[in-house]
Amino acid sequence: MSSSEQKRPLALVTGASSGIGWELAQVLAANRYDLVLVARREERLKQLAEMLAQKHGATTQVLAIDLARPGAAAQIKAELTAREAEIDVLVNNAGFSHHGPVTQVPVERLHAIVQVNIVALMELTRMIAPCMMARGHGRILNVSSVVGFTPTPFATVYAATKAFVTSFSEALAEELVGTGVTVTTLCPGTTKTEFAEAAGMTKTIAFRSGAMSAKEVAEIGYTGMMRGERVVIAGRMNWWMVFGVRFAPRKLVARIAKKIMAPTN
Question: Are the C-beta atoms of residues 168 and 161 closer than 8 Å to each other?
Fold first, then answer.
């Protein structure tokens, strides 16, 4: 087989139907990866798949699966096994939030946030990482957030799930030293995606004060992953914010976060 005919590596991206996931899929395809795209919205995934094929010659598989449903990760793994698909890069990007006092958020929504942001990510990583280890190579990119470093009122559960993602990913990265598998945590700040609108955050100070583009965040995340970095904070201002909160009193950090995330009329 000539070098031009060699099999392209395969990347799986969750939450690929919009935002950072959509852009990460494009960055991966531009770097000669084939894709497995996972999200609820099948039509959006098909649209992205067609674009990736036309622009980059990528072969793309679409899995329209709702990660908020228990057992979603097992369903994805079963599909991969049936298709004999070996994942070289796993991107756990899917996630969503709530906005407002946690005591007023429907319990069902809180369960769904935990299911998508924590359980599906953890299970998918657990199911795919051993296959990477057996082959002696692989990269995992888990998308967290800068709010994972801060107690964040009005996004209470979301921020807590991202704290889990960051801690889980950093610990796993250390566990996998010497296996050929790297784990990178991408921590964006406010980003121009559908996320804020879906969570009802568009009028908060956090999203009125400027946001990075999803494309820029995706490129930063991809570069950090390929370098094998453990934690990648997107944007200089976000880096300084994370650095600062490590030394500030936690009560003060929570109070500032509360003002930034306060609901507006």
Answer: no
